[in-house]
Prior knowledge:
mainly alpha, 6 helices, 0% strand, Cytochrome b/b6 domain-containing protein, electron transfer activity, cell membrane
Amino acid sequence: MDQPVTAKPSEKLDSFTILLHFGLMIFAVLAWLTGDWAGDYKKISHLGFTVHKMLGIGTALFLAARLFHGFCGPEQARFSNWVPYTRDRLRMVLEDMRGLVSLKLPERGVHQGLEGLWESFGLAVFTWMAATGIVMFLFLIPGQKAHGAVRLVKELHEWGEWLVPIFLAGHVGAVILHALAGDHRWRTVFFLKEN
Length: 195
């Protein structure tokens, strides 16, 4: 019988990493919620587009800082320590998935196993949204319909209307399940003690 792969639990995340997560949480969710308002970019008066654009800029700034921090920040915040790209890390993801099927929550360090895979997916989604949003910020002309490559980028950006809620459902669902099981790590995002 295979022995389960265990990950060395990461130490607690530093305050800057938590701040970046908090900023991404606020700006990204608000940008996603205001996405439908952005359709008024075709009109001369386009308040919805302007609000969505400003929230998107905030998201892109927090995301850029988080990506930089993930490559150059402290050891426990670096992607190289949790993105599941090795056989052992992928095995942890599979073990976590098997555990969930048998109604057992994974007990791993921060960003290890399935949590690391899901966080990687979330960062990829928000990077996609920020990249396509920046292109529209630079080339979309308010008061006019989008044409050509800008229209294609706009359509690609709108995929986020489906990808963001999929990520949020998994992420928030996992946080709720862990909280119900007594793991109150979520409190650190609001700079509260875990209890």
